[in-house]
Amino acid sequence: MSDLASTLKQALRGRVITREDADYDTARALYNGMIDKRPLLIARCVDAADVIAAVKAGRDHGVLIAIRAGAHNGPGLGSCDDGLVIDLSTMRSVRVDPVSRTVRVDPGCTSGDVDHATHAFGLAVPFGIVSTTGVAGLTLGGGTGYLTRKYGLTVDNLLEADVVLADGRFVTASAEQNPDLFWALRGGGGNFGVVTSFVFRAHPVGMIYGGPIFWDTRGAKTVMRAYRDFLPQAPEELGAFVGLKTVPSLDPFPREHWGKRACAVISCYAGAAAEGEKAIGALLKSVPAPLFNWMGAMPLPAMQALFDPFFPKGLQWYWKGDFVKSLPDEAIDTHIAQAREAPSELCLMHLYPIDGAVRRVAKDATAWSTRDATWSMVIAGISPDAKQAAALKRWGRGYWQAVHPYNLEGAYVNFLMDDEASGRVQATYGPNYKRLAAIKAKYDPQNVFRVNQNIVPASA
């Protein structure tokens, strides 16, 4: 591959990292420490011209290509063995237009990068729940988070994207330009090209009322039932998800509760503290007293970054996901029983709301189609200890097998690991899959971009 390395070094302004470089192991390291991949080369692009050159070189040399942006991908699909990683992580510019309330975002940005830039103008883009999440992967997968109930999915707020296609062409995708590609990008993952710039609609969000509330697991069934019944009537400004967790044996958590199995509701009210307190109060009056209630007024970027310290890069992760329509009592019992078997304190199950603004968009308006779900579920086996990898997988798979009969067939693509059957990808997109496969055939007929939750070209 010396020819490829030579070609890239001549064509790129950015750095090309090879296996011989001293920082190769650092450069190839993934967010998920459970996954270890050894690419031949890492092309660290600095602009769209670099991306065009890298795509052309990788294609012409016939090597496998992976795209790495914010580098937060759970199944490690931002890298590949014995191929070329096109690394966008240094492309991190954010440009806010406060008049039009739009934001142009480079693909290497994290949601925290964007939050920092928009908050100065009293604006926010609906992203996820952790500030280290990469904007590109989150967006292309759909994007759910604290502001989803009020302002929709991340893709519902995407206005435009610049894309480098598999043949090296540079195009813009929007409602007016290449609308079929624009439709596919909104939930279809990294199947259609390399996005070098996103333009989002932003919304007026500044201070919020939010934080976690934890209950002892003995009250978990009461809390989960109350949350289930409360959510449809809750104001859309309240983004609240429920989870089964363990109180971490770490500061600032109260030492008397360290290591306790727990149920948590973590909320963000996009509005005044008094209104937020009233909104969550409707839930609190029907549940037991919590172990602790840390809700309070704070800037939205602080809420987004609240849990960052507990999830540094390099932990062991194993994820399983499902879309959930309803949560009967029997399913709640199964969740609680499975969560009790978690092999580490960081393991969790979360149910993220999919309602409100999400349901006011037609199922065929974007590639992301499961708009009639009520939640997106994630089961995450997490530990800093590599020796627990097998146990995390066993627990995650067993938990999923136990609760899946209560759920829908598809799952949020960003919660699918690389060992998922391809049928789950088709189930996720449902009736939209056939259209996605046709668009894939138009823009990437040779399936150059296949290191992802792959949509096979219709002609293949």
Based on the model shown, name its key terms.
single chain; 14 helices; five-stranded antiparallel β-sheet; 3 domains; Uridine Diphospho-n-acetylenolpyruvylglucosamine Reductase, domain 2; 460 residues; 28% helix; Uridine Diphospho-n-acetylenolpyruvylglucosamine Reductase, domain 3; 19 strands; globular; eight-stranded antiparallel β-sheet; alpha+beta; Vanillyl-alcohol Oxidase, Chain A, domain 3
Would you state the CATH class of the largest domain?
Alpha Beta
Helix amount: 25-40%
Number of DSSP strand runs? 19
Q: Count the helices. How many?
A: 14
CATH topology of the largest domain: Vanillyl-alcohol Oxidase, Chain A, domain 3
Distance between the termini: 28 Å
| Total discrete domains | 3
Report the major sheet: 8 strands, antiparallel
- Overall geometry comes to globular
CATH architecture classification of the largest domain: 3-Layer(aba) Sandwich
The overall pLDDT, averaged over residues, is 96
- Structural class comes to alpha+beta
Characterization of the model:
- The chain has 460 residues and is α+β, with helices and mostly antiparallel strands.
- It folds into three domains: 2-87, Uridine Diphospho-n-acetylenolpyruvylglucosamine Reductase, domain 2 (2-Layer Sandwich), CATH 3.30.43.10; 94-204 and 433-443, Uridine Diphospho-n-acetylenolpyruvylglucosamine Reductase, domain 3, CATH 3.30.465.10; 207-415, Vanillyl-alcohol Oxidase, Chain A, domain 3 (3-Layer(aba) Sandwich).
- The protein has 14 helices and 19 strands.
- Helix 8 (220-230) crosses helix 11 (329-339) and helix 11 packs antiparallel against helix 12 (389-403).
- The chain is globular.
- The two termini are 28 Å apart.
